[in-house]
Amino acid sequence: EKALIVTHVRNHTFDFPKTEIIYSSHPFATDKSQYAARKLIDFVEKINSNDLLIGLVSGGGSAMVTLPVDEVTMAEKSEYISRILVAGIPEREANEIKKSLSKIKGGGLSSKSGSSQIINLFLSDERNHKYEAIASGLLTEKKNTDPYAIIKEFSLESITPSNILSIIKRRSSERVIASSKTIKNFLVGSRENLIENIMERASAFCFSEIFLLDNLSEISPETAASYLSESFNKFYDKAPAGMHLVISSGEIQVPVSNKKISCHASTVWPKSAKGGRNQHLVAVMMERHSFKFPFCFIAYATDGMDFLEGVTGAFYADYHLGMIKEKIKEIRNSISSNQAYEIHNAFNTLLKGGKTSNNVSDIYLFSFMKE
Predict the structure, then answer these.
(1) Res 191: pLDDT
(2) Count of CB atoms within 10 A of residue 208's CB?
(3) What is the CA angle 175-176-182, rounded to 5?
(4) What is the pTM of this model?
(5) Nearest-angstrom CA–CA distance, 288 and 242
(6) Which of 121, 273, 244 is nearest to 185 (CA)?
(7) What is the β-pairing status of strands 362-370 and 242-251?
(8) Which of 142, 237, 286, 342 has the greatest number of C-beta atoms within 10 Å?
(9) In angstroms, rounded to a whole number, what is the distance separating the alpha carbons of residues 261 and 145?
(10) Distance CA 62, CA 326 (A)
């Protein structure tokens, strides 16, 4: 019995016999990601046919394990994936493109395994818990895909280099031969489990009623903010007197300008953007939605990293409204330049913390008081 763990969290408490730990990177793929991929390939290739291979797969694994096809360099692939992500392409669709440029994703690792029996246990951050989309389906079955259809659907041909476009077209026309391996997938954790836990703990904070909203996906921060604000006001109108909590989840899409943005952190696109999805959403909520009753809105990343290490998200409350009104121009500038961190740092509205070594979604919490 042997195990290999790939993680980007160094302050862990793992202490298992016959276990090798590989440190990789997240959210950006680096040389560490390629090293981790090669170590995984070496590990699964040495497994005997009758041995059982168990994969423990968490959302966020795509960046930590990556190995591009021979015709594309790591730098070329990373630059291209960054382009399509900041263009606002949904993560599932972006993952299909990633897989078409990878030796290991989309079932690439399972096909290299010597084992004929694979069990996958998933901790899901995927919007519908689609197994082949979680961490880009390293150990799932290979399937016929059409990444070129996604290129056309989202009009990405103009930003797709010719060599990458040729590979994507070729992968779209390939037909996968059915595997003889037995692969079974099981969902062991997701945002629903976290939400249930939040609801159980909410009673200790004197919330008299808890409301739930559906998971948000494939929408802009502006659309998400409008939907959330409208929902919060509706819940307030029908709620009895007391403290109340509204819980929602999702991963919104935040397009980033293709222009370099000067800031003290970096001047290299797209890492020049200083903020994250949750910080950006809270800034948009600040700009547009003040509410006329006592409230607090929180948005945070369950992996403990809202694009920036040490920052998990952001919040604002009714006591910030005066300052928001005075600084509305600065807030709008931070939104348009993707520098939400700067305004939250100035307002002291950042949520800070460490990496959690798991990823099940972004979570949005809205608490309010009705007298």
Answers:
(1) 93
(2) 14
(3) 160
(4) 0.83
(5) 25
(6) 121
(7) antiparallel
(8) 286
(9) 36
(10) 42
